[in-house]
Amino acid sequence: MRISMLSSIRAKSSSNVLLALKLCSAVMIASAMSVGVSSPASATTFGTNLIVNGDAEANTVTDFTASSGFQTLSYSFGGGFPVAGDPGVSKGGNAFFWGGNTSITTASQLIDLSSIAASIDTGTVGYVLSALLGGYATQDDNAALSLSFLDGSNLAIGGDTTGSVLAADRNNVTALLDRSVSGFLPTGTRAINVLLTQTRVTGDSNDGYADNLSLILRQRSVTSAVPEPATWAMMLAGFGMVGGALRNRKRIAHRLV
User: Fold this and answer.
1) What tens-digit pLDDT sequence spans the chain (257 residues)?
2) 208 and 232 inside one domain
3) Whether 230 and 200 share a structural domain
4) Are residues 68 and 27 in the same domain?
5) Does 111 share its domain with 236?
6) Which residue range forms the structural domain that includes residue 162?
7) Which of 111, 115, 212, 227 has its CA 20 to 30 A from that of 94?
């Protein structure tokens, strides 16, 4: 009789332990799923500058869809333009982008991201947009680099901009300063339009200068490495059930044997 009861109790206790372990396992799996490893995508899209000839070193603007006046100019040109020794020039190479003699100059590139659509739609693809931007002496001629996020129908679903650099930002001297902005691509993004706008405020020359135009995408592999509080509570409850079932099994077995 005692052996029969002991066997029954052991079977019931084992069932409770198994149930508790299953609960812990389910919670841990759910926690792992909530971490959300994102889909793989083309490695060449991430970590590299997606703007072609963004540093103006090709001495051509054919990679851009540009308005009249947009051109490259050597840092050795002189004549009041940025030269070696001016703030920020050492960060550039041999040439920079100049707005010519027009009041507003634009240059853009359309970057197709359809090949990484699955990754973008996880919400884990981040971007960093940066540039060297500047102008001439006390004038407020300026340049700004901006993004438009486009969906599959080429409709804008968001955007961002580095902002511009005015004379006060440059301490009223000819200079180029680092400007950058970052964030995450909106889900549904299938292309990005990168737009450089150079604006003349004073004089005849559009002295909104730009160099080192850069757009870099990076993928965050997980959304969170720490379980939510509710998940922790479920896990602790599950482990408590395991411990309680084991202790109860040992006490009953000790009394009956």
Assistant:
1) 444 544 554 544 455 544 544 544 444 444 434 333 333 334 468 999 999 999 999 989 999 999 999 999 999 999 999 999 999 999 999 999 999 999 999 999 999 999 999 999 999 999 999 999 999 999 999 999 999 999 999 999 999 999 999 999 999 999 999 999 999 999 999 999 999 999 999 999 999 999 999 999 999 865 444 555 665 566 556 556 656 655 665 554 455 45
2) no
3) no
4) no
5) no
6) 43-219
7) 111
Q: Compute the half-sphere exposure of residue 182: CA atoms within 13 Å on the CB side of its CA.
A: 9
- Clarify whether residues 92 and 208 are in a common domain: yes
* CATH classification at residue 204: 2.60.120.260
The single-letter code of the amino acid at 184 is F
237 with 190, same domain: the answer is no
d(CA 228, CA 218): 25
Reported for 1-5, long-range contacts at CB under 8 A and 24+ positions apart, including other chains, are 2/256, 5/256
> Is 157 exposed, middle or buried (CB count within 10 Å of its CB: 0-12, 13-18, 19+)?
middle
159 and 57 within one domain = yes
- Token pair 């000819």 is found at 174
